Amino acid sequence: MRVAIAGAGAVGRSIAGELLENGHEVLLVDKAPTAISVERVPMAEWLLADACEITSLDEAALQRCNVVIAATGDDKVNLVVSLLAKTEYGVPRVVARVNNPKNEWLFNEAWGVDVAVSTPRLMSALVEEAVSVGDLVRLLRFSHGDANLVELTLPPESALAGTQVGEVAWPEDTSLVTIIRGQRVLTPSTEETLEAGDELLFVAAQAREEQLEDLLSVRRGDSDD
Length: 225
Hints:
Elements: E1 2-6, H1 10-21, E2 25-30, E3 45-48, H2 54-59, E4 67-70, H3 75-87, E5 93-98, E6 115-118, H4 119-131, E7 137-142, E8 147-153, E9 174-181, E10 184-186, E11 199-205, H5 209-217
Parallel strand pairs: 1-2, 1-4, 2-3, 4-5, 5-6
Antiparallel strand pairs: 6-7, 7-8, 8-11, 9-10, 9-11
């Protein structure tokens, strides 16, 4: 997979390193000469250019990229890069970094963004996830379909503890994608039995989040009322 990353700062280089370790082809683009540190990510391609300029993106051959990541520290730049990547080059997947949470509402399909990653929101979500059992925590927002990646740790008193996944009447527009149980990451088959303490990851429509939380948090005995 070929990935172009706009922004070769600490965030961009870190992402590049992870992708390269996983066998992907990576191009880092930055207009600041001081940001071009080939020795830090030697396996990546580097391009000194303004990612907001069409001529620069032509040089980067963005049309050959499977994914573009707008990872600069400037939200305006990230929005422009996302829009150009999607509308001018038809990049299938565009991921954008949100630096200021107040701008998060802009990072949507209208600006070419498939996935918006807000570092402050993600950090706060991880804090909530660490201390919350039985509460739904929103980890990531997807622009298409108004869907979110959400997590809930199944409380011991939940009526669903001991129930097979296939027996649960999940809300519409909701999909259980992963069960994290201790050190194990499980693909949720219909025969898999939910256990207290399971971390459940869902992709769910925002309108279904409250219904999902109610379903997972209902206590034994309450479900029979």
